Structure formats: C-alpha cells, structure tokens
Amino acid sequence: MPKVKELEQQFERVEMQLRLYQKISRFFTRPIPLDEALQSIVALVAEFMHADSCLLYLISGEELVLCAAKGLNPGAVGEVKLRLEEGLTGWVARERRVLAISREAHQDARFKFFQDLPEDTYEAFLSAPILARNRVAGVINLQHRTAHAHSGDEVEMVSTVGTLIGCLVALSVVEPARLDEVEFADLVLAGRES
Asked: pTM to 2 decimals?
C-alpha cells in the first residue's frame, strides 16, 4: 500500500508541474508587456516551489539586471545589478549550469552580498540560466529561508522554466505585426529547398 501512495504523490506532482508549464506557456500567446509576464511567472514559480523568493535577472551589456521578483521590495527591480563575474548568479550565467545549494548559500565562496537584498541571508538557493536560442539571456533564482534539499524534479523544473522564459524573451523581440505577414509553412519549407 505505501508504494501506491508514493506513486499517487508522484503523479500529483507531475500534474502540478504540467499545470505550471501550461500557465507559463499562455504568456506566449497573450499580448501583455514582457515585464508583467515575467512578474507573473516568478510569482507562479515561487508558489509552486514553496520558495520564499524568486528573482529573475536579464543580461544588459556585461551586467545582470534584476527584472522581476517575488518576495522582495519591488523598488529593487531595475536597481539591483551585478557584473557577470559576480556572485552565484553570475557564476550560473557564465557557466550556463544549474546551481543547487541546500544550506548556507551565503557561505559559498562565489556568493556576493547585496545590502538591498535580505534574501541574501536565506539558506537554500536554486538557480538556472535563462537560455534564448542557445544564448544566455539571464538567470532565475529561487531561495528558501531555511535549508531545503532540492530534488531532481525541482532542478529539472527550474531549468525548463529558464528555457521557457528564454523563449518568451526571444519572442518579445518579434513585432506582433510581423507575425501577421509570416507564412508559417514557408519557415520550414524554405529551408528544405536550399
């Protein structure tokens, strides 16, 4: 009987993950500003992960700029910046790798403290690069106040969310009017004729 209960819990978790991905995918079709979409996504991800904060940084030149946040003073958005060679977030961007620290994240040698971010004293840290067409566009961070061992499913989930956000950011570059002009089948078939 315990095995059945375990399978039911796993199935429920997968169902919840799929619902999260569905909610995020809806931002691909809605005509809403990118900042609103990203703010909604970090709120959804923080809720799903039961995280105390979710911070989303995007690259501008040689810096990572905080562009959306849940569990943080909203005034920090756009104000908190770090160079690509700074902190855990910079490491994730440079290495293009997921980083999971279950406790004492602020003790990690790569850590950089920000006075404006009380989240820097949180214990657990999970971070993934945001990728757009194989280019790093930013980083998404999840933090817990207390120690938290990140499961393989959580690591995979935040990595997938990073990829979805990267696609949304890349799609935001396309003018909506341009989409009205596109013959979508030609995008595929033109490549076959070469």
From this structure: 0.86
